[in-house]
Amino acid sequence: MNKLYVGNLPFTCGDNDLEGLFSSFEGFVSAKVIIDRYSGKSKGFGFVEFTDGNTAQAALSMDGTDFDGRTLKVNLAREKRESGGTGGGSRDRRY
Fold it and tell me: Which CATH number fits the domain 3-76, given the four candidates 3.30.70.330, 3.40.50.1390, 2.40.30.10, 1.20.1090.10?
């Protein structure tokens, strides 16, 4: 896995700030802070991507690092699950 989840980011953190934290790792590819589509503000987490799994493993060392007064949570990113969009019930309801 080449992608890491980075949580507990300061809400003022942008893509460039996140990139600055991880760009020193060889094989760094990209950094993206997730923004709320309605408010336009950071959700407090993001993702960083590397060229290979070994570099991503090395970057896990950033877990627990203090960044702007917040303790970062760095984990391997999980695959996004498909959402059915029905709220969890049966799709074939009869009324």
Answer: 3.30.70.330
Confidence of residue 1 (pLDDT cuts 50, 70, 90): confident
User: What are φ and ψ of residue 66, in 5° steps?
Assistant: -80, 130
Q: What integer pLDDT is reported at residue 50 of this predicted model? A: 97
Instruction: Identify which of 49, 50, 10 has the alpha carbon closest to the alpha carbon of residue 32.
Output: 49
